Fold:
Amino acid sequence: MYNTPADFSTPSARLLVAHALGRAAAAFPSLDPLPLSTPGLDERDTRLALAIHHVAKQRWLTAEYMLDQFLRQPCRRLQSELRGVLMVRGGANCFF
Structure:
C-alpha cells in the first residue's frame, strides 16, 4: 500500500498550489492578485486548492515568521520551489 510510486499524471490540489506558491516566492514581494488556475481538478479539489492558495497568500509573512523559527536559515533564502512546498505543508495548514 505505501510502497507504490506516487501517480503524478493527474494533478493534486496541493501540488498545484505548491507550484503556484513557488512561482509567487520567486516574485515575492510582488504577489500576483489573480486567482489560481486549476485545470484538471474536480470541483472539490478546486475549492481546496483555492482555499489553501488564498490563505497562504493572505498569511504569507506570518507563515514565513513561523517557519523561520524552525529553519536553520531564513525562509527567504531557500529555493522558491521549496518555499512553495513549505507554505502549503507548513504555513497555510496552520491557519486552515
